[in-house]
Structure formats: structure tokens, C-alpha cells
Amino acid sequence: MASFACYLVLPLLLASTACHARDAVTPGRPLAANQTLLSAPDGKFVLGFFTPPGANSTYVGVWYGKVSVRTVVWVANRERPIPGGVADNHGATLSVSATGTLAIATANSTVVWSVKPAAALASPAARILDSGNLVLAGAGGGVAWEGFDYPTDTLLPDMKLGVDLVKGRNRTLTAWKSPSDPSPGPVVMAMVTSGDPQVFIWNGDDLVWRSGPWDGVQFTGVPDTVTYSDFTFSFINNAQEVTYSFHVHNESIISRLGLNTTGNNGVLQRSTWVEAAGTWNLYWYAPKDQCDAVSPCGPNGVCDTNNMPVCSCLRGFVPRSPAAWALRDGRDGCVRATPLDCRNGTDGFVTLRHAKVPDTVRSLVDMSLSLEQCRQACLRNCSCTAYASGNVSADRRADGSGCVMWSAGLTDLRVYPDFGQELFVRLAAADLGITSKSKKKHVIVAVVASVCALAFLLAIAGVFFWTRGKKKARKTGSIQ
Ligand SMILES: *[C@@H]1O[C@H](CO)[C@@H](O)[C@H](O)[C@H]1NC(C)=O
Ligand SMILES: *[C@@H]1O[C@H](CO)[C@@H](O)[C@H](O)[C@H]1NC(C)=O
Ligand SMILES: *[C@@H]1O[C@H](CO)[C@@H](O)[C@H](O)[C@H]1NC(C)=O
Ligand SMILES: *[C@@H]1O[C@H](CO)[C@@H](O)[C@H](O)[C@H]1NC(C)=O
Ligand SMILES: *[C@@H]1O[C@H](CO)[C@@H](O)[C@H](O)[C@H]1NC(C)=O
Ligand SMILES: *[C@@H]1O[C@H](CO)[C@@H](O)[C@H](O)[C@H]1NC(C)=O
Ligand SMILES: *[C@@H]1O[C@H](CO)[C@@H](O)[C@H](O)[C@H]1NC(C)=O
Ligand SMILES: *[C@@H]1O[C@H](CO)[C@@H](O)[C@H](O)[C@H]1NC(C)=O
Ligand SMILES: *[C@@H]1O[C@H](CO)[C@@H](O)[C@H](O)[C@H]1NC(C)=O
Q1: In what order do the strands lie in the sheet with 93-96?
Q2: C-alpha distances out from residue 456 to 246, 266, 283, 446, 469, Å
Q3: Neighbours of 314 (CB within 10 A)
Q4: E strand or H helix at 460
Q5: Which residues of the chain have pLDDT under 50?
Q6: Which residue's CA is the closest to the ligand 3 atom numbered 10?
Q7: Claim to verify: residue 49 and residue 133 sit in the same structural domain
């Protein structure tokens, strides 16, 4: 009770010494179930024993120090709780041994969870940092183990999702089974590095969401990222790591990315704490709409929520199963109206604008190529069906650099009203409509159409200005 009161008043008093708050567990100074650690220097995170609402088990976890609704962001022993609530477990402890083994034990000294450093540490301490990271280190200062390498269901600012090739860690998020059960549920989010890396969410074996690859600025399937000016999103893809993280510039903004189970599905939510309202505000979430369901329009189909029906075929393609397609079941996708004609070198490309590019798990990536070199490489390879820039410029005015090439079907393709990338889809000459005869015809049609349109616009403008002039005259008249 006392420690709970401490944790409530501490941010107000800003007097950590008054409550004897500490931020570390050291040999001979374990943490008891009725105590907490408070991160230094700002008390942003608390580490302690907790029992989720509706549960009768005890866990060691990390929650916010300055958020009045207890929000657990990390759990140590999620797979092996201590039976009974915190009140039943006064004697449980979190301790560090003289050599640096960090362990959670019950009152009768049964160890339910532990981490042992690769080598014994001198003067070890387990410390909760203001980032929310629980760090085990020795006197030398080198980090022997850290909680950020073992995420639970929440990505905090500066915490990395993805693969650390040096440590051999694959940092994934796994949703709680339910709000009263932190144990790993079926909903998982992870970075898949094959082809062009992407983030996926699964619910058991079912694919729930695909981020699309990083296009240099954002994930192609998270198109509104650039509008969040208080955040920086970063993606690192090199020999040491393939990771995603976000950084919040404004110290007073509390934001987290959490993976959850809703009804029958998985959902990724970015929430931001609104102090005035005392609630978490939902900032962004995915999957969001019908087109975020994985490949609702099948291979070579394009999903567009602004169309009814949402599925259409790429230009130059026709539905594979017209009967199913007519019933708005797009999953079979589309096939080419005309086969490619690679050897003759007459194939060309059509541009699909504002696209979330297709699944890149089996794409070829060459970041050293320019977009024009990419086009030529695609034309040279008879199995290449589309290409796109791998690294668009931040202002999207230039072409960008880097090359992503697809072969076979283009799956899980959607378009946005405004965001997204340009995708260049390979077509046979017959489907490009660029034979000289049809080109001429198009030009004539276009010229006739523009002349008609211009005449029509002029007529409308004439009528508009005429009536406006009259109205204005009338209005002016009435004022005088
Ligand atoms: C909670 O668990 C403890 C220990 O397992 C048990 O003694 C107690 O009866 C349980 N309480 C409830 C409400 O189930
Ligand atoms: C915590 O529990 C121990 C015994 O279980 C008790 O001696 C101590 O006073 C308690 N501390 C607080 C802060 O409640
Ligand atoms: C010690 O506690 C654990 C978990 O609370 C329980 O499973 C085990 O039976 C207990 N052992 C003894 C000897 O009481
Ligand atoms: C990381 O884990 C996920 C989920 O288990 C898996 O699909 C993915 O391929 C893994 N990534 C790497 C690089 O091992
Ligand atoms: C940080 O965010 C707070 C609350 O949203 C706002 O009042 C403040 O002006 C921001 N500070 C900066 C430097 O943007
Ligand atoms: C999951 O949803 C529950 C209920 O809405 C909420 O209490 C919890 O904070 C959510 N978890 C995450 C990681 O956002
Ligand atoms: C290549 O072009 C020639 C002449 O235009 C045509 O007869 C031939 O069928 C084309 N080859 C293929 C594989 O379509
Ligand atoms: C052509 O593309 C296929 C499929 O992506 C790939 O396996 C093959 O290596 C490529 N060939 C060349 C010469 O790039
Ligand atoms: C992407 O392009 C920018 C310049 O627009 C460049 O600074 C950056 O290194 C490129 N990234 C990769 C992975 O090639």
C-alpha cells in the first residue's frame, strides 16, 4: 500500500528520496512483491509485481510511472506466473545473485523465471531505465541482458522490432491471450527479411496484415506515417540488423505501439496518452479496412476502397474466375489478357500510381540500381513481371533509387487515394495500346475530346460569369 501511494505522489512531489524509491536490484537487495523500482532520473517507468484485473496469478512487469491507468508494457514471466494474487505472495522476490543471475522466486524459493549472463558479472545490478528497458549489467557497464531484446506485446519509443544479426535475436511482439492473461496468444508480429523486408501480423497460421516493404521513407502499407511530425520512424537494413523503431521528439508525448487480440483477430494500435482526459487515445491502427485483409483481390488484382466493388484487375489482365469475380469473390485474382513476349523485346510497362506494392517476400532487390537501370533489368529478365523504386526520395518529387523486381503473380496489391508508390507493371505490347495505329486513333480521340471539353468549359464559364455579374450588380444595388 505504501509503495503504491509513493508511486502516485512521487511525480507530484518530484522527491524520489522521500519515498526511498530505487531503480535497481542488487545482490543482497532483492525486490519484494510489495515493492517497486522506479526508473531514474524521471520516474517514467515502474517495475514491480502485479496481478492483471480478473486474474489470480502474479507477474513481474513494467508499467508507466506517469500514466494513471496502469498500462503494462513488458512482462518477465508471462509464461510462468506465480499462483495467486500479489496479496497472496508477500514473500515472492526478484533478485540478482552475486554472479548476476536475475531471478523471480516464490515465497518457498521456487524459481519461476531467470536469466543467466553468459559470463559471471562483477557487482551486478538489474536497473529499470527511463526508456522502459530493464537492463542487467556488471560494474564494467557492458549490458549483459536487456528486456528490450525480449519484447512482450508493446513497442516503446527507441525499442527495435526485427532481427539483430549480431546477437542472433529475432525481436517479435506477441499479444496477450486476454486482458487478464499475459501469456503468449496466437497473435504475433514479426519482421520477415526475405526479399525486401516487411512486417507481418499473424493470428495462428492466418496472415492478418502486411506492412509492405520500407520505401525509404515509410512502410508502403502505412502510408500516412509522414504526417506525424512529432515522430521519427526508422528502418535499418544492414549486415548487423534489420529493424524498425520509432522515436518521439517531444518528451511530454507518451506513445506506444501495441499488438492486441480483438474478437477473432489481431490488431496493431498506436496509442497516445491524453493527460487531460486521463485516457489512451487511439492514434493509428492496422488492419484498417477491407483492402488491408491480405490479398482480397488475389494475384494481379488491385484493391481500392474507393471503388465499388473494391477489386479490379490490373490493366492488361482479366479475372481468372469470372463467375466468382462477378459474385465479388476476388481471391482467384486475374490473369494476363495477352502473354508476355519477352524474346521479341516488345514488352513495356504501365504505371500504377499510389500503390501499396505487392508482397516482396520473393522479390529481387538491388539498391545500387537507378530506376531506369531497374526498368532495363526487369525487361532483360523474362520472369520479371513488375518493378518499383526501393528508396523513394523524401519529397517524392524525384524518381528515387534502388530496385525491387517481382516475378510471377503480384499479390496483395492495393491503391490509396493519395499516398503510395509507383509500381511499373510489365505488359505485352498488345495490352499497352502503343501500336502505331491505335496510337493515332487515341490521339485523334484525345484531340476531339479536348476540343469538345474546352468548348463546354468555355460555355459554362460564360454562363457562370454572366450570372455572377448580374447577381453582383443586384447585390451592389441593394447595398447602396
Ligand atoms: C487464488 O490462488 C490462490 C493460490 O493458488 C488460492 O489460494 C486462492 O484461493 C485463489 N483465489 C481465488 C479467488 O481464486
Ligand atoms: C512488505 O512486506 C514485508 C513482509 O512481507 C513487510 O515487512 C514490509 O513492511 C512490507 N513493506 C511495505 C512497504 O509494505
Ligand atoms: C512452492 O510454490 C510453487 C508455486 O507457488 C508450488 O508449485 C510448489 O508446490 C511449492 N513447493 C512447496 C514445497 O511448497
Ligand atoms: C522472426 O520470427 C517470425 C515469427 O516467428 C518469423 O516468421 C520470421 O521469419 C523470423 N525472422 C527471422 C529473420 O528469422
Ligand atoms: C510537446 O507536447 C506538449 C503536449 O502535447 C505541448 O504542449 C508542447 O508544446 C510540445 N513541445 C514542443 C517543443 O513541441
Ligand atoms: C488491448 O486491449 C485491451 C482492451 O481494450 C486494453 O486494455 C489493452 O491495453 C490493449 N493492449 C495493448 C497492448 O494495446
Ligand atoms: C515475335 O514477333 C513476331 C513478329 O512480330 C511474331 O510473329 C511472333 O509470334 C512473336 N513471338 C512471340 C513469342 O509472340
Ligand atoms: C530473373 O528473375 C528470377 C526470378 O526473380 C531470378 O531467379 C533470376 O535470378 C533472375 N535472372 C537474372 C539474370 O537476373
Ligand atoms: C536512399 O536515398 C537517400 C537519398 O535520397 C540516400 O541518402 C540513402 O542512403 C538511400 N538509402 C539506401 C538504402 O540506398
Answers
A1: 31-32, 93-96, 102-105, 111-115
A2: 52, 52, 45, 15, 20
A3: 24
A4: helix 436-479
A5: 1-18, 435-449, 451-452, 456, 463-467, 469-480
A6: 108
A7: yes
Which residue, among 50, 49, 57, has the nearest Cα to 25 in the 3D structure?
49
Among 336, 338, 340, 341, which residue has the most ligand 7 atoms within 8 Å of its CB, making it the best to mutate?
A: 341
pTM above threshold 0.70: yes
Per DSSP, 450 falls in state H
> In the numeric block, which cell numbers belong to residue 283?
492514434
Q: Which ligand is nearest to the CA of 346?
A: 7
Q: Taking a C-beta distance cutoff of 8 angstroms, is the pair 306, 417 a contact?
A: yes
Smallest CA-to-CA distance from 212 within 388, 401, 40, 412 is with 412
CA 136 to CA 69: how far, in whole Å? 28
Same domain, 12 and 137: yes
**Residue 469 pLDDT:** 45
Last residue of a domain, one of 109, 126, 149: 149
Of 432, 427, 438, 405, whose CA–CA distance to 342 is shortest? Answer: 427
CA 80 to chain centre: 29
Q: Confirm or reject: Cβ of 149 under 6 Å from ligand 7.
A: no
Ligand nearest to the CA of 397: 9
Sheet holding 279-286, edge to edge: 154-155, 255-262, 265-274, 279-286
Q: What grid cell was written down for 324?
A: 466468382
Q: Name the residue among 169, 149, 168 with its Cα closest to residue 159.
A: 149
- For residue 302, give the C-alpha cell: 488491385
**Chain-centre distance for alpha carbon 245:** 9
Ligand 2 atom closest to Cα of residue 35: 13
CA 195 to chain centre: 18
Q: Does one domain contain both 7 and 141? A: yes
Q: Is 133 helix (H, G, I), strand (E, B) or coil?
A: coil
Within 10 angstroms of residue 19's Cβ, the number of other Cβ atoms is: 17
Please tell me the predicted confidence (pLDDT) of residue 123.
95
Give the pLDDT of residue 416.
93
The pocket around ligand 6, CB under 6 angstroms, is made up of: 153-154, 179, 258, 260, 269
Among positive and negative, which fits the CA dihedral 260, 263, 265, 269?
Answer: negative
Q: Among 91, 57, 53, 88, which Cα is nearest to 72's?
A: 53
Domain that holds residue 390: 294-432
By CB neighbour count within 10 A (0-12 exposed, 13-18 middle, 19+ buried), where does 158 fall?
middle
Q: Any idea which ligand is nearest the CA of 405? A: 8
Query: 94 is written with which cell numbers?
Result: 526478484
Task: Please tell me the distance from the alpha carbon of residue 365 to that of residue 351, in angstroms, as a whole number.
Answer: 19
**327 and 411 share a domain?**
yes
Given a contact cutoff of 8 angstroms between Cβ atoms, the answer to whether 11 and 44 are in contact is: no
- Residue 238 C-alpha cell reads as 544492414
Distance CA 217, CA 241 (A): 18
Residue 158 φ/ψ, nearest 5 degrees:
70, 10
Domain check: are 355 and 469 in the same one? Answer: no
